[in-house]
Design a protein that fits this description.
With about 170 residues, the protein is of the alpha/beta class. It has 8 helices and 7 strands, in the order βααααβαβαββββαα. It has helices at about 20, 25, 35, 50, 70-80, 90-100, 145-155, 155-160, and strands at about 5-10, 55-60, 85, 105, 120-125, 125-130, 135-140. A 7-stranded mixed β-sheet has the order 4-3-2-1-5-6-7. The chain starts with a strand and ends in a 7-residue tail after the last helix.
Length: about 170
């Protein structure tokens, strides 16, 4: 699964739970991620969603995606144009929901990343390498398991199953 992502760092802190990602009050109105993306992370920063640019990379600290096991949290991030989340650690459920929906979860040391830093992520058979081009720092990330890499390559679990890729694994 060789991949390369480049983008601007959008930094949030530790313990960003799924209700911070998309408020439960917003989900009462609709589950359409194209509508909900307007409210991405509004609890932490009301102007966040409007400032997101396609290709931005979301950067969290420890325990990203904790709280409710809502799949919509991952799909709203994707709908906003963010293709990957870097964090020191993820809630297990969020990590799996991200992979299943085609959002790249990257575990690495994010402590040196500042809002607006330019990041380049390289993913290959050897693992994950995050190059903070603004700071001149390279950090290795946790490699993805083979099956998860295949699911992400397909664009998510539904497409992976639709293609019958699981028969070849």
């Amino acid at each position: 699964m060789p991949a390369r992502l480049e983008g601007r760092a959008r930094v949030v802190g530790d313990n960003v739970n799924t209700d911070y990602i998309i408020s439960s009050t917003r989900k009462r109105e609709t589950l359409d991620e194209q509508i909900l993306k307007r409210y991405l992370l509004e609890t932490l920063d009301p102007g966040f969603a409007a400032s997101v640019r396609d290709g931005d990379l979301l950067v969290g600290g420890a325990n990203f995606g904790c709280g409710s096991a809502m799949e919509i949290a991952a799909t709203v991030i994707l709908a906003s144009g963010i293709r990957a989340v870097l964090a020191q650690s993820f809630s297990r459920t969020f990590f799996r929901n991200a992979v299943n929906n085609g959002l790249m979860p990257i575990e690495c040391d994010t402590s040196g990343i500042i809002e607006g830093d330019r990041l380049a992520i390289t993913i290959d058979a050897r693992g994950v390498l995050m190059d903070n081009r603004t700071r001149g720092v390279m950090v290795e990330g946790e490699p993805l398991r083979h099956m998860m890499a295949e699911i992400l390559d397909a664009g998510g679990l539904v497409e992976y199953l639709r293609r019958g890729a699981w028969r070849r694994a």
